[in-house]
Amino acid sequence: MDRLNEYRVMWVMVLFDLPTETKKDRKIYSTFRKKMLNDGFVMFQFSIYIRHCPSRENADVHIKRVKSFLPAKGQVGIMRITDKQFGDMELFYGKETVKKETPYMQLELF
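Now predict its structure.
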């Protein structure tokens, strides 16, 4: 029962602002984004990607992986929040409140 506790399940959020002025910069941006997608992150908003993790230890693995391919220039922030905190988020499009959709539910099979 403790495995599915909403305070144990984590979300990793990567926020980034990378330069795109030159062709080389755009290539670095694209490579960084593709590596995150290959690691299971999905786009939440422009330059904000999230990933569901079943535990803090699993979140640490993915954070370490993102750190391994950080670009030389630009700003990258990595945030780890609980499933409970993520579920309490309010999203607005204009003045209307919009029900938040969870990108997907990840299942573990043993």
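The first helix runs from residue 23 to 38.
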